[in-house]
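Box 3.1 A note on notation
Throughout this textbook, protein chains are presented in two layers. The first layer is the amino acid sequence; the second is a token string describing backbone geometry. Keep the layers aligned when reading.
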Amino acid sequence: MPHVTIYGGPSDNPVYQVGGKSFVFFRNPRPDAFDPDTGERYDDVIVFWVPSEDDKLALTQDPDSPFFTTPHFNGHLSVLVRGSRIPELSLPELTEVIQDAWLSRASPTRARKWLAENGPQA
């Protein structure tokens, strides 16, 4: 995706941005994302922005989906996924999630230009 910058977050975790807006970032272990059996905080959570609440629900409502959310992200247009579960996604699925994240945060001009030149790739 064009115009992407990557910088190190608070613990040098990668944060991907377009136009100064984050669209994917690797989250530090936090108390709201943890193993329900052990209580251990997940150390591999990735946050992806989504275009709408409907998109968020579509990704998180199936209990078998690798995507999830937590109360901390109520009202926030993003979904979480553990890095260990990324292999459950096909390349076209992962491509679509990343494209949608980028498109949801890119300026309207950049998004229109990219879509006109490439169309959705998934």
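The two ends are 13 Å apart (CA to CA). The helical segments are 53-60, 91-105, 108-118.
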